[in-house]
Amino acid sequence: MPFSACKLALSSARRTSIASGLCAALIGCGGGGGAAPPTVNFAAPVSGTSITLGQSVNLAWASNEASGCTASDSNTAAGNFGSTAAPASEPVNGTATVIPTAAGSFTYTIVCTGAGGTATASVAVNVAPPAVTVTVQPQESTILLGEGVSISWQSTNATSCFGSTSSIFSGGNYPLLYTANGANGTPTTTSGTSGAAPVGTGSFTYTVTCSGPKGTASANASVVVTPDPGAAPITITSPVHGETIVLGQSVIVAFQGPAGGDCFVIEPNLEAGFGNSAAAVTVTPTARGTVTYGVTCTTSGGLTSFAAAPAVIVLPDLVGAGKISTLGSTSDPVLHDKHPKGLALATTTAGRITTGDLLTCDFADSGGKAGQGTTIVGLHPTAGATAYQVAQSAELAGCNALTALPDGTLFAAAYRANQTPMVAPAGGVNAALPAGTFVGPSGIAYAGNSLYVATIDLSRPNGGSIYRVALNGDTASSASVVQIVSGLCTSGTAGALYGPVALLYGPSDTLYISDSSSGQVIEIRQVSSFSAAGQFAATCGGSPPTGLTKNELTPQEDQIDFFGGTGAGLALTPVGVALRPNGNLLVTNGDLPLSAGSTPPPANSVIELSSAAGGGVLGQPRQLDTGAPGALSGIVATQDRQGNEVIYFTDANTNSIIVLSQ
Questions:
Q1: Domain at 133-226: CATH code
Q2: pLDDT tens digit string along 90-107?
Q3: CA torsion, points 333, 338, 344, 345, in degrees to nearest 10?
Q4: 307: which strand partners?
Q5: pLDDT band at residue 639 under the 50/70/90 scheme
Q6: For the domain 319-661, what is the CATH superfamily, name and number?
Q7: What are the residues whose beta carbons fall under 8 Å from the beta carbon of 548, sequence distance 6 or more?
Q8: What is the C-alpha R_g of the chain?
């Protein structure tokens, strides 16, 4: 009730009963008229404000109806605004500046009192740790090979640092060490100096990475190392440019240095000393990727030379260490034909086929009778794939191999039908050449404007031949068929053929012939220019026939090399053949050898052969199926959708496609 109304009520009370009117008036005026309660609030900072350690907190507060205030904070590291045990006296309206001494979350509280009671206000501030900084400085930015350099670094707000260098030739000593994968090298102090004695020429980067509560920071410095102008050169003859190996395989570093030089081979895991000026050193990489070896030599006169070898690419040992899985069944979903033979990748999406699908022939009918299958099926390259029928025709009877053209058209080698039919992506099958053009087609490969066809004529012991068929688009004529190889040994039956059983066309116009009779893979370079009737005058009928050699050839023998064979110390029965990206050959060993006393790879295994002429086995053969021999025929090496290398195989024992992946 307003004061004037209360006054009026009292005045009225006098005219009636003073005692009762006074009580009523007091009740109507709200009691005895006590003091108002105080209020207080922080004007700054806003609660939840964040700062970096080292910055200050500016506090401002205002109160009403207060006679005094005290301040406190939540932690001794908050900056001494006061403590709960000993609050600091503060004015009723005021400001204060505090500097936290540690990172964390702190609460600042002001408590004000007055005649009407007590009021409290609090504000929270987050204090983040300071950022890490680091600097790196070389003593000199350019030096001569043979000289050393000091690398200094300083950091702030760091609890640990690591040093690394960009090259094995940078000569970084502790704590600056080369790391091949770019990760931090050796732990070191947060500030210091390290000496480096580069063993190679070029620009080298020295990096220090430091970490602290706030995060990580890196800095680097470069030093250019120039050749000693008076030093003699070093010649490296091995490895050669573009050399690619499989993890576990060794590399030979062969060099010729200055006369009387004390030479070292430099590699990530070894600095091997040699007292002479020429050597051939065998080194074995321990990780996949790219590795570069170098040689440095110092003469008695103190002159230092350096040479870097060509980089070597180290691929994973996919054969020896890859994961084996099953893609899916290859049994035809309509006729239930089985026993897959040959394998091709779909080159385009058309008709029933999708780019990247795995395409294979079913060689046997549903009852397992060899040579009676008449279907081609496809599987998408995903685990658990289900086969779909691409084509079915009597012209595909005994389909043993197939090849894909860029437009998706397929050509097949139908052994029992004596045909090389053309298969459209929509499933139509047409005779590409007149019946009888070939006897026992067993392999087929597309080569740009040509097809190459392998045949096994069991009516003759030397009935193995290779033909070149010129293409006009997707069409061929009998007039375009040229026999380029003849005289290869042949034997066996429709279900177990020996002879030229598979073909592969590779880079540089190279044709690979998988010859299960001689136990070799035959390489013909520049095959498009290979002369007609290249005769292999092998003596057939042995157990097995003796491996072919160059002196058994008549024309253009310089274009031919051989992989495997008992003469090369490798007894096997090659069936499927493919190329890895590194140029090495992948060969499936289809059968146990016929020669007595040999120690072959197990049946149904895959072997990797070096791409070098007559290359030997890399790593260990990998058996993919322990069942009946001769199960593996088709093989394709490619990449999955993530870019990882993957190898596919057809397996006639399990009627499936096997996958070998990383």
A1: 2.60.40.10
A2: 999 999 999 999 999 999
A3: 30
A4: 295
A5: confident
A6: TolB, C-terminal domain (2.120.10.30)
A7: 515, 518, 520, 522, 536, 538, 562, 565
A8: 42
